[in-house]
Amino acid sequence: xxxxxxxxxxxxxxxxxxxxxxxxxxxxxxxxxKRTRAALFxxxxxxxxxxGASEQMAExxxxxxxxxxxxxxxxxxxxxLRAQAEAKRLRFEAWRTSESxxxxxxxxx
Length: 109
Known about the structure:
It contains three helices and no strands. It is mainly α and 109 residues long.
C-alpha cells in the first residue's frame, strides 16, 4: 500500500514540476512574442510608416505570427500539464477520502 502511495505522490510531483517548467517556457515565449512585435514596430516606424500602420504591419508580419503560434503552443502545453497534475491531485484526494470512509465504516461495526 505504501508503495502505491509513494508512486502516486512521485507521479504527482513529476507532473507539477513539469507543469511549472512548461509555464515558465510559455511565459518566455510570451515575452519573445512581445519583443518581436516591438522590434517589428520599430522597424516599420523607422521606415517612415505612421504609428497605426506600423502597429498593423508588425502584427501582420510572418515573424510575429510565428512568435504568436509558438507562444500559443507553449501555453497550451503548460495548461494541459497543469490540468493533468491537478487531476492527479484530485484522484489522490478522492482515494484518500474513500480509504478514510472505509476505515470509519469498519470502526462502526
